[in-house]
Amino acid sequence: xxxxxxxxxxxxxxxxxxxxxxxxxxxxxxxxxxxxxxxxxxxxxxxxxxxxxxxxxxxxxxxxxxxxxxxxxxxxxxxxxxxxxxxxxxxxxxxxxxxxxxxxxxxxxxxxxxxxxxxxxxxxxxxxxxxxxxxxxxxxxxxxxxxxxxxxxxxxxxxxxxxxxxxxxxxxxxxxxxxxxxxxxxxxxxxxxxxxxxxxxxxxxxxxxxxxxxxxxxxxxxxxxxxxxxxxxxxxxxxxxxxxxxxxxxxxxxxxxxxxxxxxxxxxxxxxxxxxxxx
Amino acid sequence: xxxxxxxxxxxxxxxxxxxxxxxxxxxxxxxxxxxxxxxxxxxxxxxxxxxxxxxxxxxxxxxxxxxxxxxxxxxxxxxxxxxxxxxxxxxxxxxxxxxxxxxxxxxxxxxxxxxxxxxxxxxxxxxxxxxxxxxxxxxxxxxxxxxxxxxxxxxxxxxxxxxxxxxxxxxxxxxxxxxxxxxxxxxxxxxxxxxxxxxxxxxxxxxxxxxxxxxxxxxxxxxxxxxxxxxxxxxxxxxxxxxxxxxxxxxxxxxxxxxxxxxxxxxxxxxxxxxxxxxxxxxxxxxxxxxxxxxxxxxxx
Lengths: 279, 301
What we know:
The complex is a heterodimer.
Chain A: H1 7-29, H2 54-60, H3 63-96, H4 102-114, H5 117-138, H6 151-175, H7 179-187, H8 192-221, H9 224-229, H10 237-246, H11 251-278
Helix pairs in contact in A: 2-11, 3-6, 3-8, 4-6, 6-8, 7-8
Chain B: H1 2-7, H2 9-39, E1 42-43, E2 49-50, H3 56-62, H4 71-82, H5 94-125, H6 129-144, H7 147-160, H8 167-191, H9 195-203, H10 208-237, H11 240-245, H12 253-261, H13 267-292, H14 296-300
Antiparallel strand pairs in B: 1-2
């Protein structure tokens, strides 16, 4: 039975792949719709400027969408860098040492994985509201001066839910780590820092990189936590699209989504090529 | 100072973990405690929280109304709710219905995602190695396009079939959102199975069904368990899919919590609902992991 697969299994698998891709294909198709209402497909848009790419050009004049894209990237990059550093340190500490708060640290790092995201989202909202109310009252700030939710609150929240996943990924790598290589380096006269920089870090690097990749993905894809912690000036693309869905939907949303999908696709293919070359 | 640090192994460990630990205490544990405190408070007419210690919000979630006088009334009310009678005393079933609906859709989604994902994961795991990574890559691409965009993509198809804003539409949306999260861990554990086991099973006279039931399925259980955790927990708490594809009628506990914090402006009731959601999810997960284990070997890789 080794390599003969049932045709039914092949057919079923094919069906599931169609299920996965049909909505995306329809989404892209409607980015070229001529009807502004965007309910049924009328015909391929062909208006000045840009002809069939009319809705994509309209996007370049949409400063809200461009700002949202910028915010999304700022948040994802900042939170990825910080959560990778914090998470890698914690993974080293948890895997290599014994100390008093170890099991407490392990439990608190597992919580974000097993509680629904919305609970984390509203608890962060309660925290930030409390802090900002307290600060505003204490410093007697009024009007525009009042402190509130913004890029900062979104970034620290994203770090909070990314760190546990980085810790998990890096620990998996450390788990299969041969300690004798480090001992050999020390025997040959390298101090702790040199050993870490020249031996440990290069060896755990694949784990660190896949942790960073995971953190970046989680941040880009996040909607719920951002929804509760964003404020004026920190709208991300998912929040922006969600806002549009509640009002009128034009093919512009489809154009925006298409650009997003294409960027992701190119990034994925490039990183896959790079990984292959490295391997 | 540095010399002391070098000698103290436990101090080194504490220092390495402390940024992560402080982050978790400040942004996870303290906020959760604040939510618990808020849930016992009351709301004043302006929407501000008056802190106190009352169980009113939790009682409100059970739907108990003022018409109840004694135990007999409660039992009668509960019975009428169970038999689905229109004459309701004691209980307003609104919130219980929301909770029940949320649990039910989480169970349905998880079950259907297993049924749809398992054959695919099996197919990919047994495909020639060269094709495997491409097939896997094709599952990852939809996962990378944003959550909200993926839901949005369904609006037009569901409208074409005239089922937009129905419970069925929400279920389809949920399956679509979470299918990849089930396929990936199932694939990981199916791929680990040594193909010689299949041959051994066949040599010993088992037919393919028996091989599947006695070899493949038990060995791939860790993947199914890990996938279930990755699907069940987020489905229980989401409000995006039901909001966009379910219309106003299909309210899940996530929608209830969201509206309490934003439009209804009653964070105390919203906090109580969140605590209930968290406790319910944890109970299900503890019950489930006691029975099947964590499947962490799959999550970790």
